[in-house]
Amino acid sequence: MIRKPHLVTAMIVVAGTFGLAVPNAFAVTVPFSARYSGSALWTSPTTIALLGSGTATQLGRVANSRTVYLTNFNSSCPDGPDGVASVNVETLTGADGDTLTIESDDVACPVGPGLYDGTGRWKVTGGTGRFNGASGGGQFTGTADLNQGRFSSNPTGVLTLRAG
Fold this sequence. Notes:
Layout: H1 4-17, E1 27-44, E2 47-56, E3 60-77, E4 80-94, E5 99-112, E6 115-127, E7 135-145, E8 150-162
Antiparallel strand pairs: 1-2, 1-8, 2-3, 3-4, 4-5, 5-6, 6-7, 7-8
């Protein structure tokens, strides 16, 4: 008689040998929410560096490092075509050194001179430690005060993490 743990191991070995996809039965999907803020610094006419700190589920206290690549200065906003589209690449680093890297696409709409409210979608693109092999995504909201060089961000969604 084959015991179940040995049967599962045998199935994974056989599937791997023949190049078959193995369902991710060893993963768990959890809610994700973060809130952080910090400084915003222009690094070129089309890029902004954001450095901040805050908290995130699954990470606790985090340091945030993001580069904003401005891609379109005439994107649509509810009050007209004055929005700024961008691609954001950011890394959240937990106190234990584990990282979660996400990429987002968003549009920031002006709400005053140098003041923007942004919304968009994000997805996981990498990670280290317990976030190695993670996937997931969701939406976010954020604000930027480019007069004062400040930002805040609030991504929410789900993460799928490898169990174990």
